[in-house]
Specification:
By secondary structure, this protein is an alpha/beta fold. It contains 14 helices and 21 strands. The strands form 5 sheets. Strands 1, 2, 3, 4, 5, 6, 17 and 18 form an 8-stranded mixed sheet that branches. A 5-stranded parallel sheet has the order 7-16-8-9-12, with helices on one face. The chain has a 3-stranded antiparallel sheet with strand order 13-14-15, with no helix packed on it. The structure holds 3-acetylpyridine adenine dinucleotide. The site of 3-acetylpyridine adenine dinucleotide has 24 residues, from loops.
């Protein structure tokens, strides 16, 4: 087979590579493709700007809980991060900077929302249908649609009858002022622990509805001094060393957070010590004490969450919510908590059953059906029966302890190898062998046995049947090694024809 001499489109009506989404994943794939001379891609973005969740999550206090040097691309370091942990605005600006510096905006079709995609075996291409009715074909599709971006509203009885303001942290109304209002925050996860301290001092009363207390550790977030920023600018090696040390520190947490062991007990003792130091009231301390293994749910970092809960205008309510009426939240102890606004900090719909759009693969099979008991892919990227469709942040690629950007860059390595193989073999598509996916996932699920995630808490990491479809069950460097290797023998290599495609195992060259 001959390699294509240039990277222009095969056909004006067909995108060689369609990247869906212009957040961290989509921009990262595009930049790395460009760096390797692969310029024939188009990015379809449903919103009017790049940034993904960092564009959309504008609730007060929104910030990253992974250090900035590590929560950025290794190939695009930013020497002048303003804080140890980047706030939302700064991360959003960083992503806009990436789009501008690499001149990606001209390759992005903004306000273009994919609504349906179907694989056509005869042509070996994907038919993409957009919300405005436009259609397009693409030889391969990179699904960089993000993992946690569809807000989850719990179906609490009576919420529609509430007369005040209702907001989700991921759909924050910046026009609405909480000043002097009586506010309820439902949930105490990663978003809640950021929003609560940020609004506590401006609201008149704050009612926090906690179902499960999180494990919270100090964040030690600080401004980065101008002198240090100058140092990083002048000596990039220093910044890289700091990044590497942060990586090693976070990786060293794996044995404590992942395997239920004496290290987990040690972490729990530190968490309890921190709680005891900040919260002097024994009743409140008891309410905030977790009763499950540390790591089973995401361990949260905050310097101001516990201090905010100890303030006089805050009431931590641990009784279950029965219903919501016109003016109040009613709890199982018979109390009515009158409020002006309700903030749902209740997380996201986890994509256990496919993308939020219909995806039809070989023979019309529907991804939603294939994933009905839990999503699965090979290395979190490829899915059998859905040729030339490549996920970024796909199943079982979430980090329990470190930066998701490290995982995204690992996926990009694999995707680039896949795309280059396709490029050497025009009219061919690669469909992952079902056995390869089955064995990979059987091994992953086996590795979850004995981890903290299966130690009995209720978390969004697990499906309702207890299957973990979200996290990577080991060190992140192991994921990096796994994704370095691309073997075409793990795929059916099928030559497309204008008629019916026929499998041709020898069709692909790997050289
Ligand atoms: O959502 P969550 P999140 N009644 O699912 C509670 C990422 N993130 O938006 O624990 C009462 O963690 C629920 O209670 P329980 C990060 O990956 C990253 O906070 O299920 N409460 C829980 O307390 C994170 O893990 C950053 O018992 C109800 C809360 O709502 C993910 O996003 C920052 C309830 C939901 O917590 C999600 O975080 C922010 C009900 N009916 C988020 N239903 C970074 O810094 C749910 N809850 C990178």
């Amino acid at each position: 087979m001959t390699e294509h001499k240039n990277n222009t489109k095969r056909n004006n009506n067909i995108d060689e590579v369609a990247i869906i989404g212009a957040g961290f994943g989509g921009l990262g794939v595009a930049i790395r493709m460009q760096q390797q001379g692969l310029n024939d891609f188009v990015i379809y973005e449903r919103a009017g700007d790049v940034g993904g969740v960092w564009r959309d999550n504008v609730y007060p206090g929104a910030a990253c809980d992974v250090p900035s040097h590590l929560y950025s691309f290794s190939f695009e370091p930013k020497p002048d991060w303003g804080r140890t942990f980047g706030p939302q605005q700064e991360i959003y600006s960083y992503l806009r900077h990436c789009a501008d510096k690499y001149q990606l905006r001209e390759k992005i079709k903004f306000n273009t929302s994919l609504s349906d995609m179907t694989f056509c075996e005869a042509s070996g291409t994907w038919k993409l249908t957009f919300a405005d009715g436009n259609k397009r074909r693409a030889r391969s599709v990179v699904m960089a649609i993000g993992a946690l971006n569809v807000p989850q509203y719990p179906g609490i009885e009576g919420v529609d009858s509430f007369g005040g303001k209702v907001m989700h942290t991921a759909e924050w109304d910046q026009e609405y002022s909480l000043d002097g209002k009586r506010v309820a925050v439902i949930g105490t996860g990663a978003s809640a622990i950021q929003v609560i301290p940020s609004i506590q001092s401006v609201v008149s009363d704050l009612h926090v509805f906690q179902r499960t207390p999180p494990w919270v550790m100090p964040k030690s977030d600080k401004p980065v001094t101008p002198a240090r920023q100058r140092l990083y600018r002048r000596w990039p090696i220093v910044q890289r060393t700091v990044r590497n040390l942060q990586y090693l520190f976070m990786e060293s947490l794996v044995p404590a957070f992942m395997w239920d062991s004496f290290l987990t007990r040690f972490g729990e003792a530190m968490g309890r010590r921190y709680l005891g130091k900040v919260i002097r009231d024994p009743v409140l301390r008891k309410k905030l004490s977790p009763n499950y293994a540390m790591g089973c749910k995401r361990v949260l970092l905050s310097d101001d969450y516990y201090p905010a809960l100890a303030k006089r205008n805050v009431n931590v309510c641990v009784e279950g919510i029965d219903k919501i009426d016109e003016t109040a939240i009613c709890t199982s102890d018979g109390k009515r908590h009158e409020v002006d606004a309700i903030v749902f900090a209740t997380g996201f719909k986890v994509p256990v059953s496919g993308a939020p759009i219909p995806i039809r693969g070989v023979g019309g099979r529907l991804l939603e059906k294939d994933w009905v008991i839990g999503s699965e892919a090979y290395k979190g990227v490829a899915v059998s029966g859905y040729p030339n469709m490549l996920y970024v942040m796909g199943p079982n690629t979430g980090p329990g302890n470190t930066s998701v950007i490290f995982y995204i860059e690992s996926q990009i390595n694999y995707i680039l190898k896949y795309l280059k193989t396709l490029r050497r073999n025009q009219n061919t598509y690669l469909d992952l062998k079902p056995m390869v996916q089955r064995e990979f996932n059987a091994d992953i699920q086996e590795r979850f046995k004995g981890t903290t995630w299966t130690s009995g808490c209720n978390s969004w990491y697990l499906t309702k049947d207890g299957k973990n479809t979200t996290l990577w069950p080991s060190f992140s460097w192991q994921y990096r090694l796994t994704t370095r290797h691309f073997s075409v023998s793990e795929y059916e290599c099928i030559t497309a024809s204008s008629e019916v495609a026929a499998p041709d195992r020898n069709a692909v060259t790997t050289a």
